[in-house]
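Recall that a protein's primary structure is simply its ordered list of amino acids. Everything else, from secondary elements to tertiary packing, is in principle encoded there. The following example makes that idea concrete.
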Amino acid sequence: MKIRKIIIYTIGIYLVLSSIVSVSYFVGKQPEKSDQILNGIPKKITELIISPIRITRRFFIHEDGNIIKNKTIKDGINVLVKDSSFDNLKILTSYFENEKLTVDLIDFKTKKSVKKWLPYVDEIMDSLLKGQNRVSIQKISKSEGLPNIQILRHPVLMKDSSIVVGGESFFKMDNNSKLIWINTNIEAHHSLELDHENNIWISGRRLYSQLPELIDKENTEFLDDLIMKINPENGDVLFEKSVIQILKDNDLYDLIFKNGNYEFDPIHLNDVQPALTDSDYWKKGDLLISSRHLSTIILYRPSSNKILWYRQGTWFNQHDPDFLDGNKISVFGNQVFRGDMEKTVKLPYEFNSVFIYDFEKDSVTEPYQTFLESEKIKTITEGRSEILSNGDLFVEETNNGRIFIGDTIKKKLTFSKRLNDEEISYLHWSRIIKN
């Protein structure tokens, strides 16, 4: 009985101490002292004491970043118009399920999961603060001191069923969800795309810019976006180039600072799409670069550092350009205006649009306008689209957790991930996988 009381008292004292130290840690921590906090208490001892609070806090962070209130959307894949082309398609998507971040490969024909990956989040989170040259890591270190993963963005499926994932983290895990590598020194903050050599192009950042006018200036003060080519075997950077530097080298520096205007995030790179084939207008290995904050798509040749073509608008704050046929590209237009420092977002259009630019005709069309308007598809930020081989359009309405496939007139298939009767999961940049 005496031993039992001692155990209960010990646990009670531990929980009280943990709570007190946790509050002090999060409110009063001095981030510039990396080894000691709280008036000299070693950091490792303090983190051991606060671990219960830390675990609890992680749970709520995951939940808050992944839930959308919605009572009406049906769960899973719903086929409204039968089409044999669906039999050859799968979707690779990322969502939040049973309090876990999940990557799922789902077959359209069977409507069932083929394979799931469940990353060991704690292992990844504990690795993140080791990064020394990442913007987000420095922001975490200067604010709350604890890394977190709310998203697994735009997973890439490799031939051996391993996947590479971006977002707050950038890592590769095998087909059993075991961590193979994690690159903690760069950000992979938007799209991940495979090229013809099976390397991965990312929208990247480092903490310090190498631009002459910004040398040694932290990217926390001014964001210098980089296109990066990554070796998927080990996560090493094979090539990198500042988008601002690319524009300077091609006499387009004025696009960034028109009329002397300054913006903290002038480029907002959100896609680097490699060409997989040659055509009359591009070569294998050329890149489509999407700058959201310039509302500009750039066709760039890394081998010569030349911009072959660029266009500002008709799309506004766009995402996801794709090579299409041999003389066209598609662009997902969010069609929103940003307010001062993005505090407000104005909506000039009620719905998103998918534009087709024809290089041969120098023309822009919107063939899917009726479909997008009829389904009221409107994601203010993010968003993905792809024109399939039969001419149908795949769209991820990211902000609302919905996926559609439709023709120019109507929807033919939908997908969402329902969590309960009240809520669905956010989706994080799904991609179509062809059999």
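The longest strand covers residues 89-97. The chain has two domains: 1-49, 70-434.
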